Description:
heterotrimer, B: Helix Hairpins
Amino acid sequence: MSGLIALFLVIGIAFNCLGAIALYRFPDVYTRLHGATKATTFGSIFTSLGVIAYGFTKWAYTGEARFCVLAIHAIVALIALLLTNPTGAHAIAKAAHRSGVMPKRAVVDRLAEREGKW
Amino acid sequence: MMDMSGWFMATGVLLVIFGFLAIGRTALGPTVPDRVVGLDTLNTYIVAAMIVFGAAYDSVIYVDIAIVYALLSFIATLFIARYLERGL
Amino acid sequence: MGSYIATMILSYLFYLFLTMGSGNIGLWSSSELLVGIPVAVIAGLAGGRIFGEYIPSSLLNPYRWCLFIYYLFVPFFTAMAKANIDVAMRVITGKINPGIVKIKTGLKKDMALTFLANSITLTPGTLSVDVDEEENDLYVHWIDVKDVTPEPRDVCGDFPEWARRIVE
């Protein structure tokens, strides 16, 4: 079981690291959002899964209720993260476009066409 | 018995280091939305790190604060985005 | 009236979920069970109107919940894993060809559109940017544009179909 938890944590760290690199690697705000949102959400799912698995295993071994509580609250935090992350990314992308930041190296921009800015 | 607190501690510290990288993006810019992206990513890292620290120290209060922090930082992001769109 | 009471009951259940394991009446202590009631009533009075207005009644069907859970664990999770491997490749090679395209969704309810937009943001190569509120079309930032006037299927696969089946 501890091997599985360690595996979850390592996968989570790898994808979170990817998200941090994506912030520096990509040229403009939209592509950075791609990297940051997807990679950090996926990575956080795995680190939290590690915590959830740890809580339930400890609960099964020791029978102490606080480990069960730890796992359940980690699930709630994970759901909050899953709901808020894509919505926040959408809000930033919309605000960026409306405040006049155009995508770099774009081949097509239908939204700017609609607003007559292309 | 399994003792994973070292693993959780290392994961949490790495997440905090990634958080510093996100602060770097916030400092570099160059446009305002870029800075907001850095801030949003930083918030995700902090929430993930808090959940992991909750397991490392075996205390649920870290995870409770992570829930509240996730929701509040989401509202902050929405607020900044709305400000960028059309002012206060 | 019904939506206020539904919100109160849901808030109370959520409160019980959060305070699970605090005592010995079932899983809860007597103080948590008591304090939960006024908190749930206040939450219901504050949020009942919004709850009734934005949540369509079709969501009360348990079959849709099962479908949603299946969706979350099978098609959505595989798409998300693919998306991350795709992003990993792009971070390493730096190969991008971005653009903002418009896709017709054909959805009617706001809830379905929210669902679809969030799914699109977390799946391969796409990020929802804006919504055309008259026709419910989505403007999507696509990181690898293959076609400047794409079919919805090319951009986001089966997701509009899933959104229709689960929400509408």
